[in-house]
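About this split. The held-out portion is used to measure sequence recovery: a designer receives only the structure tokens and must propose an amino acid at every position. Recovery is the fraction of positions where the proposal matches the reference. Here is one held-out target exactly as it appears in the evaluation file.
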């Protein structure tokens, strides 16, 4: 079962990774995108804590990229927030 919000967030982060000139930020964004792609295809549901950690990592990287890349990263965060609304807890 694909979780669309996670897959879309992954796509946004891959786009951001490709668009940034900051190598370290690009690598981190690609890593986060892969994590989300795996979670999107996983049989088990990602919990709030896992998604919150990914959102925090996105926030950390935002300071190191251009405004355009940061906007794409914000789109990914929005998708993650939408996903979190669908899971139980917190």
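Reference sequence for scoring:
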């Amino acid at each position: 079962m694909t979780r669309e919000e996670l897959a879309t967030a992954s796509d946004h982060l891959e786009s951001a990774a490709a668009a940034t000139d900051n190598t370290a930020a690009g690598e981190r964004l690609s890593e986060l995108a892969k994590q989300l792609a795996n979670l999107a295809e996983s049989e088990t549901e990602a919990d709030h804590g896992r998604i919150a950690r990914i959102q925090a990592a996105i926030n950390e990287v935002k300071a190191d990229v251009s405004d355009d890349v940061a906007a794409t990263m914000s789109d990914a965060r929005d998708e993650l927030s939408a996903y979190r609304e669908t899971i139980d807890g917190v």
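Annotator remark: The mean pLDDT is 94.
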